[in-house]
Amino acid sequence: MAHIAIIGAGMAGLSALQLLKQAGHQVTVFDKSRGSGGRMATKKVGNASWDMGAQFIRSHHPEFSKVLRQWQLDGWIEEWQMQPHVIDDQGIRPSPDDIERFVGVSRMTALSRRLLAGADEFIPSCRIISCQYQAGQWQLCSEDNRHFNGFDALVINTPPQQAKPLLQQPAPELAAQCEVDMLPAWSLLLAFQQPLNSDVKAAFVKHPIIDFISCNSDKPQRDKPAAGALQTWVAHANHDWTRAHCDSPRDWVQQQMLDAFFAVLRLDARPLAEVWLHRWLYAIVDQPLHKGALWSESLPLAVCGDWLEQGAVEGAWLSGRKAAELTQQRLGADR
Ligand SMILES: Cc1cc2nc3c(=O)[nH]c(=O)nc-3n(C[C@H](O)[C@H](O)[C@H](O)COP(=O)(O)OP(=O)(O)OC[C@H]3O[C@@H](n4cnc5c(N)ncnc54)[C@H](O)[C@@H]3O)c2cc1C
Hints:
The structure is a single chain. The protein is of the alpha/beta class. It is built from eight helices and 20 strands. It folds into two domains: about 5-40 and about 110-180 and about 290-335, FAD/NAD(P)-binding domain, CATH 3.50.50; about 65-110 and about 180-285, Polyamine Oxidase, Chain A, domain 2, CATH 3.90.660.10. Helices cover about 25% and strands about 30% of the residues. Helix 1 runs parallel beside helix 8 (about 315-335). The termini are close together. The structure holds flavin-adenine dinucleotide.
């Protein structure tokens, strides 16, 4: 049994964790956030809660479809029958499809927590800033100067901009492969005392500011307005607009997105019960590398993340699995 460190508890790191635990290893997971899930985040403000990043999970790959079926049987995810709409200059119209879309229940982060439960140790609020390999062991150091030693192998699951500084010293050849653009996105989270008068519950939008809106309360196992809960909505700004206004004042961004949200739904503005604005600096990979994972020829070190496979939860899962397979091979070869 080897002791393995995973930096990053996003879907890729959690997918690596599943396979490494199945193989009998001891695994410690680190994340700079207070919880797990990364871009599959859920935000709670007052009595409102929203999936703030990934809105749903889709599958194209048979292996990932199998895993989704299992998670569905386990009651970790449910299908969201969202009846998509398209909204553009021409108006609002239904755009039915037969795509299966799943969500974590009762929120996206619940799925990541279930996956994380298999870890031997989870160290949250811990931003790792350096990784060194000495005398056959990895040593990690955090921003707040905590030291963690004694790992036989290391898996890094972070966006490329955050992986690069970690790789610079031990594996400059891998750091050089982290020149991958990630597109930013502003997310506006809204909650209303009275449900909006709209048939739309999710829409792909062609608009200068917003490209997707959805009613979070419409997802399975969320608190429902019919039972007295707030109605919650999510609006994602498109990447071009976000890039142009990445550093604009938050109040201004919020107002622009709010105006756009009501304009898109062809509704008059309504009072808000809660509101939250989040900036994702590294929301979606522009052009993924399609390599699965990165690995070192000389060190027990693998790197995973959606940017190495495909910019979605599925891509992150596939990448994490690949990183775990490579780690397994490496540990086997070293014995
Ligand atoms: C607004 C938005 C909407 C999206 N919509 C969808 C969707 O509907 N469907 C879909 O499939 N995908 C969607 N995605 C993409 C999807 O969320 C990602 O592809 C996937 O979650 C990426 O997982 P990951 O494990 O590669 O990375 P991440 O989720 O980014 O995980 C990386 C983790 O590393 C941690 N970390 C980073 N640096 C350090 C460090 N130095 N030390 C310790 N920890 C560190 C981070 O805190 C994070 O938890 C969306 C993303 C965003 C932002």
